[in-house]
Design a protein that fits this description.
The protein is α/β, with parallel strands linked by helices. Helix content is about 50%, strand content about 15%.
Length: about 900
């Protein structure tokens, strides 16, 4: 009967004891003391009915103990210690529980003599333990007396021969060498149920690596020792077979079969007392097989079919397919699925294991560290399973903190250690000074409290010292540091500096990507949202389609994002789509299918992201790739995952996905240029006497100049405001028109299907740059040359006239900013290089690039020596760098200068 109680009370405990009907039942003690069993059950039932109930059904492991039961457990521990017992028995619990006044009164009310009851119950349970110990001893004697293994001359050598091929797990459990098993009661019960069958009682645990298959078997071994199994499994031994030891050294024909048959005879000859556990049971298929011989699986099938041999196996879901190929073996096994526990269950498991880790690492592990270990491993480590990955993470975090703490005294040259020593020295000097003052004041004014004050200060300082030496505490931040080391993902709690950096991301990106406000804002907003924890966990951090002409900053924005938010441009996974122009080249991205060359090598994309799960993935110039390849974007953009050629799921949820394309660039350029023509500069006349605009007009295509005879100042201001709004409206109109045409071009060409486009976080148009933006880009492009000359002690300056000269001759909307770099290299860097080699340019000189005032299309270099950071006029010389005419319509298709 389920009563849905939240706590286990002493009443629950006594009720369960009364339900047990065997030779050691507590009802016999009640009868001995003269008590009425029915009345006691009725009294307990009345207590249980009054307890608060919940709508949920709790698993036993999740229930809390009532305070009264906790007190009884602690008292039972004291009684067991007095009796010099290693474990708490039922007799100790019964003695402790009935020390409670209300429970003693209950026994007396049903007519029981409490003293007689406790004496009889204690004696009865002590006898039960003695009987169990005698049975275990008899079992061991019987096992050693069995002939068992062939070719063994003595009883001791029989057991020794078999023990060399495995380990007795029940013996390990009896010695307390197995870890406590938590949260796997369901699976353990299923294993016990299958083992209790008359025939084919061979459970096989199937689950992903790390979910706890071996832990289930360890839990079974512990239950066998504790007697918490049905009668069919009482006095059983669980023997873990080491297949590696069985095969190792079996070089001669028949030697492996000999060992295997000996193991089988040992288990069968025990008359069912020995249960074999075979981890990685799929390895039986073909194990020890050579020409004309049988493998291990075929040797095991006959005794398994007859029910003479019971086996517990464990394997993964993928490797269980190997067993399924052998129908004869597969039908003799009963698969039991061991699923990955939920995060709440994993937290509960780690809390139960906490004491073991605290003892080993000699530190306290906080609840927040356990929660962080589970949640962070679940979020960022996708190729492993709970609870194994959370246990490993918690273990390593504790080890890292302990090692760092233990080595701190050896790091004398460490800045923190030196700072600590300085503080200790200052404190010591402070104490000495206070003692001297106290001695001086003591002679002048007795009873002023100086001595008491000094003692108080010394006590406070001693308390601080003890506080420092007190136990270490593992925190969530310690766990986050380890997860960051494992994955490269900044999972640690954001510091104030990091928060400031993220909030300033838009400004930082603007410094590298000029003139693309919409694109930078969209990317920066996505990153801020992700670091604030507001994005969906099953999608990439952001996914963008960048559309625009060449040389406007599409690729540069991806590089800038990788450098600023992912710590390095090395975290940019760049896929050049020109290398994937054929449909079959998709295998290079995700890996070749089975049976093809390179299947084990993995894919260019999937392997890169597996190594760097926190990165920017850039698919550059997608129009050059085959459209069929882009179909993989569906699951990548929607669910943040991709299955490679080996069937392994690769996680992209910590990546930013960016696709770039030049498709429709001509529409963007055309619309931009048309917009420039449509919105021309304002015309105005300024009256210096009144200091106001007397006439303001806007000339637009296909319209007359606005304005009239009205020269009122307020009217002029209204016209000006209307004109600015009109400009903004026209600016937005050309973008909308360009966007419509570009997306229509993409859909018409079949480059990206609508369902793919619909999955992007943003489809962003990069517009051609304005003249003011081009000059900023020019300064960035010239930075490399300036830095190279600076290392040689030479200063390079490019003045405003030279900037205007270069922009007019190197920049076009069609080719973007890339020709600027080419112009600098060809017309400045290439001309300066011979001057360096010839010695004309030396350290301590300045080169100022200017547009010539004498020759219209000439760029000059003014060279001089620097004296106190100023140019020495006596050394100034002018040299021609380049003669380049302005671009005209005929040269608009020529990107190089």
């Amino acid at each position: 009967m389920y009563m849905h109680h939240r706590q286990i009370t002493a009443a629950h405990f006594i009720t369960v004891l009364l339900e047990v009907q065997d030779e050691y039942s507590i009802t016999k003690s009640l009868q001995e003391c003269g008590g009425d069993v029915y009345e006691l059950k009725k009294a307990l039932s009345n207590i249980l009915i009054k307890l608060p109930a919940s709508s949920e059904v709790y698993v036993v492991d999740e229930l809390a103990s009532a305070p009264q039961l906790k007190r009884a457990a602690l008292r039972a521990l004291e009684i067991a210690h007095k009796d010099k017992k290693k474990t708490i028995g039922l007799e100790h619990l019964i003695l402790a529980i009935f020390e409670e006044k209300n429970l003693r009164t209950m026994l007396e009310q049903v007519g029981c003599n409490v003293k007689i009851f406790l004496e009889h119950a204690t004696t009865m349970y002590e006898n039960k333990q003695k009987d169990a110990a005698t049975k275990r001893a008899d079992k061991k004697k019987t096992n050693t007396a069995d002939p068992g293994v062939a070719n063994s001359k003595t009883e001791s050598s029989d057991e020794e021969f078999v023990m060399s091929f495995g380990v007795d797990m029940t013996a390990l459990a009896e010695q307390g060498k197995l870890e406590p098993v938590v949260g796997r009661n369901k699976e353990i019960r299923e294993v016990i149920m299958v083992l209790s069958r008359k025939g084919k009682g061979n459970p096989c645990l199937v689950g992903e690596p790390g979910v706890g298959k071996t832990a289930v078997v360890e839990g079974l071994a512990q239950r066998l020792i504790e007697g918490m199994v049905p009668k069919a499994l009482e006095n059983k031994t669980l023997f873990a077979v080491d297949l590696g030891a069985l095969i190792a050294g079996a070089t001669y024909r028949g030697e492996f079969e000999k060992r295997m048959k000996a193991l089988i005879r040992y288990a069968v000859g025990s008359e069912g007392r020995v249960i074999l556990f075979i981890d990685e049971i799929h390895m039986l298929m073909g194990a020890g097989k050579s020409d004309g011989t049988m493998d291990a699986a075929n040797l095991l099938k006959p005794p398994m079919a007859r029910g003479e041999l019971r086996i517990v196996g464990a394997t993964t879901q993928e490797e269980y397919k190997i067993i399924e190929k052998d129908a004869a073996l597969e039908r003799r096994l009963k698969p039991i699925l061991v699923e990955e526990p939920a995060t709440t269950r994993a937290i509960y498991i780690l809390k139960k294991l906490r004491e073991k880790f605290e003892t080993h690492h000699d530190m306290r592990i906080s609840d927040e560290a356990i929660v962080a270990a589970v949640m962070l491993s679940h979020k960022y480590i996708k190729n492993r399973r709970l609870p194994d990955k959370a246990i490993d993470l918690l273990d390593e975090a504790a080890a890292a903190k302990r090692v760092k703490w233990d080595l701190r005294t050896l790091e004398d040259d460490d800045e923190a250690a030196l700072e600590k020593k300085e503080k200790e020295q200052a404190a010591k000097e402070h104490r000495e000074a206070m003692k001297q003052d106290e001695q001086r004041i003591k002679g002048q004014n007795h009873g002023d409290g100086t001595e008491e004050q000094l003692k108080k200060i010394e006590k406070d300082m001693e308390k601080e010292a003890l506080e420092e030496e007190r136990e270490l505490v593992l925190t969530a931040d310690d766990v986050a540091v380890v997860i960051s080391v494992w994955t490269g993902i900044p999972a640690a709690k954001l510091t104030d500096d990091e928060k400031s950096k993220i909030l300033r991301l838009s400004d930082v990106l603007h410094s590298r990507v000029i003139g693309q406000e919409d694109a930078v804002k969209a990317v920066a907003d996505a990153m801020v949202r992700a670091r604030a924890g507001l994005n969906r966990e099953d999608m990439p951090v952001g996914s963008f389609l960048f559309l625009g002409p060449t040389g406007v900053g599409k690729t540069e924005l991806a590089k800038a994002l990788a450098a600023e938010m992912f710590h390095s441009e090395k975290n940019l996974v760049r896929i050049d789509m020109s290398e994937f122009s054929e449909s079959h080249t998709v295998a290079r991205l995700i890996g070749s299918p089975p049976g093809y060359v390179g299947h084990d090598a993995g894919g260019q994309l999937t392997e890169a992201v597996r190594r760097r799960p926190h990165s920017v993935v850039l698919f550059d110039e997608i129009e050059k790739g085959h459209p069929q390849i882009l179909n993989i974007m569906l699951q990548l953009l929607d669910e943040g995952r991709l299955t490679d050629g080996k069937g392994v799921l690769v996680d992209f949820t910590n990546c930013v996905i960016i696709l770039t394309s030049n498709v429709g660039a001509q529409y963007i350029i055309s619309a931009y240029e048309q917009g420039e023509k449509d919105t021309k500069s304002a015309l105005a006349t300024f009256d210096p006497k009144s200091g106001s605009l007397e006439h303001f007009a806007e000339v637009t295509k296909g319209a007359e100049a606005a304005g009239g005879d009205d020269t009122d100042v307020d009217s002029g201001k209204k016209d000006k405001k209307a004109t600015i709004l009109d400009k903004n409206k026209k600016s937005g109109n050309w973008k909308k028109e360009a966007r419509r045409k570009v997306l229509s071009e993409i859909a018409g060409s079949g480059l990206l299907r609508p369902e793919v486009i619909n999955r992007f976080s943003g489809v962003i148009l990069f517009e051609p740059m304005k003249s003011s933006d081009i000059k900023k880009v020019l300064a960035i492009q010239a930075k490399d040359l300036k830095q190279a000359l600076s290392k040689k002690g030479i200063e390079l300056l490019i003045d405003a006239s030279a900037e205007e000269f270069i922009v007019q001759r190197a920049y076009t909307h069609k080719f973007g900013a890339r020709p600027l770099k080419r112009f600098i290299d060809n017309n400045i860097g290439a001309k300066i290089a011979p001057w360096l080699l010839s010695g004309y340019l030396q350290s301590g000189m300045r080169v100022k690039v200017v547009a010539s005032k004498r020759s219209k299309n000439t760029l000059e270099a003014h060279v001089c020596k620097l004296v106190n950071d100023k140019c020495d006029r006596g050394t100034r010389k002018a040299r021609v760098l380049a003669s380049v005419a302005k671009k005209d319509e005929s040269s608009s298709d020529d990107p190089g200068r």
